[in-house]
Amino acid sequence: MYVMKCSRDGSFEEGEVNPYGNIQLSPSAGVLNYGQGLFEGLKSYRKEDGGLLLFRPELNAKRMMMGAERMCMPCPSLHQFVEAVKQTALANKRWVPPHGKGTLYMRPMLLGSGAVLGLAPAPEYTFLVYASPVSDDYFKGSGGLNLYVEEEYDRSARLGTGGIKSICNYAPALKAMGRAKGRGFSDVLYLDSVEKKNIEEGNVISTPAARGTILPGVTRKSIIEIARDHGYQVEEGVVPVDQLLDADEVFCTGTAVVVAPVNTITYRDQRVQYKTGVGSVTSELYSTLVGLQRGVVEDKKGWTVEIS
């Protein structure tokens, strides 16, 4: 894993690759007491010729910068971030699965690691990147997601931190997600703050706009651009529940799932089934994006970064 420290003057020292292991933190570290921390997620892909690719890592770097500003944290520069990810991928090259068999998931983290007793920015920060191989079989054989519309809990508050990858955003979602999975659903959709949800109807793809409560996802942004290149009209704005239930197709996007088709959505007592499988818009967009990420489809946009 890659580790880099930030001194009190706000500048990051040169980082280094260390063996994966535990890190030392004071019990009064800002990240432990006040949740002053951010994380990112991206992947390294094995090409057919054995080389390695990253997909739009600069967008993850910029999103971390945006989050750091909101959380009163210094942040590595774009160059430092991308270089750290490259070094981590190279150090773990033997763990990158063969072409088409999986990817190397990488988790950059920015932590308020300095001791602070009392609500204030931490005096010291740690940036690190660790990695793990993951399978491509996230939803293989599932026939799509079965989602439940949550009305009792919100994922994030307006004017809050829902638009950044703050570590404090995720634990509050566990209760609603656990309850939904206990009822046989795959995951939850939240009213007014639905994250990474897209709706396809006719030749129009609708998605909630990334404003405040919606995370500006890298996969989401890429799918929007690919869809427009394929001739679809993409509308970003408010997506009413009624429009969602009337859609022909629904899919979710994210680093882990890439593009995942939705089989059903349950809202109150109504359960709606959607088109999935071969010939779907979801399948078309998924194939193009994965082809770009793995170096099979020609990258005319300059989205991929080769690691050597």
Please give a structural write-up.
The modification N6-(pyridoxal phosphate)lysine is found at residue 165. This is Branched-chain-amino-acid transaminase. InterPro entries: Aminotrans_IV, Aminotransferase-like, B_amino_transII, BCAT-like_C, BCAT-like_N, BCAT_family. Belongs to the class-IV pyridoxal-phosphate-dependent aminotransferase family. With 308 residues, the chain is α+β, with helices and mostly antiparallel strands. The protein folds into 2 domains: 2-135, D-amino Acid Aminotransferase, Chain A, domain 1 (2-Layer Sandwich), CATH 3.30.470; 145-293, D-amino Acid Aminotransferase, Chain A, domain 2. Helices cover 24% and strands 29% of the residues. It is built from 7 helices and 16 strands. Strand 4 (42-46) and strand 5 form a beta hairpin. Helix 2 (57-70) crosses helix 3 (78-91) and helix 5 packs across helix 7.
Structural descriptors:
single chain, 308 residues, D-amino Acid Aminotransferase, Chain A, domain 1, D-amino Acid Aminotransferase, Chain A, domain 2, eight-stranded mixed sheet, 16 strands, 24% helix, 29% strand, globular, branched-chain-amino-acid transaminase activity, Branched-chain-amino-acid transaminase, pyridoxal phosphate, B_amino_transII, aminotransferase
